[in-house]
Amino acid sequence: MRHTILYIEDNPDNLLLVQRVLEAHHCKTVWAANGLTGIEMAQIHRPNLILLDINLPDIDGYEVARRLRSDGQLRYTPIIAITANALKGDADKALAAGCDVYMSKPINIRELWARVVGMLPDQAPLAEVNFE
Ligand code: MN
To answer: Torsions phi, psi of 119, nearest 5?
Structure first.
């Protein structure tokens, strides 16, 4: 089973990093560089999981999460919020907006993959991947 993961992120460096990890594990990665495109991509691709940056150039990730949650078909799609905001209360805000998990940047790829694998259905045992 090949999982599709949507990554909503405006920073191409983060995209490349995350894409490399996901594709090493044979996940299909779909990318959107802003919130509104992200919602559209979610509706088109129906991903198994969404990685969501909070600081986006149009609407913020909290608003993206709220809109995804109000779409019947995307209501239960797991969302991992990823943000540079390390302020107290951001995690609560992300969870209140409908995200399942909150992670802060800089992205730790081992932690990220552990989160991803825990949220994907029927995930095969982890293959050893050298991230270096
Ligand atoms: Mn950003």
So the answer is: -110, -5
